[in-house]
């Protein structure tokens, strides 16, 4: 049996599993882990024993110096958000900036946004790279991740599930509503994100695999987060070459 820790990582509150090689790691502690975009601070939710051993290890418990850097990064992220928003308005780009995340070592700053179509933000990336002199990434995410970030109250009167406890968006199909004999009113079946409600899965007793063949499926696959469009990356201010990132958002084996 191997010790595994469930770690919550910003900015969308996703939970990942990491191999716990540390002694006396406790729930509620902050740790340093390797995330999708470099070193980051994570929050320990649970420490369990499992049979699998194919996970990335926790690097260390966060020191006071790490937490001081983390707090400084929060200020940097707020400044970067305001600066990026100013440039978006200045260039009249049809995009909605959601959140900015900086790697712990500041070697990468990621800007998450939503937009209806493809955005040519090459000039925006150059502005950001010239300002912060580090690697800049623009990540376009889906409406479910946007709703999870902002949160809200569902028609049930409770906080929406994706904000409260859902870590992965699994496939949702109208077949789930049909099998539960729910009135097929798309307006009533849709959540505040405009997609089919996640709670349609709660009392569905059929084979989930069958829904994957349903042409009416509308939800995204399990991934973190949903990257709909290509992202342009500029590596530094002296590098005029803009690359297209076609790999999407890689993640640890966490599901």
From TrEMBL:
Residues 56-141 form the PSP1 C-terminal domain. One of its GO terms (cellular component) is cytoplasm. It holds the Pfam family PSP1. InterPro entries: PSP1-like (IPR047767), PSP1_C (IPR007557). This is PSP1 C-terminal domain-containing protein. It comes from Thermodesulfovibrio aggregans.
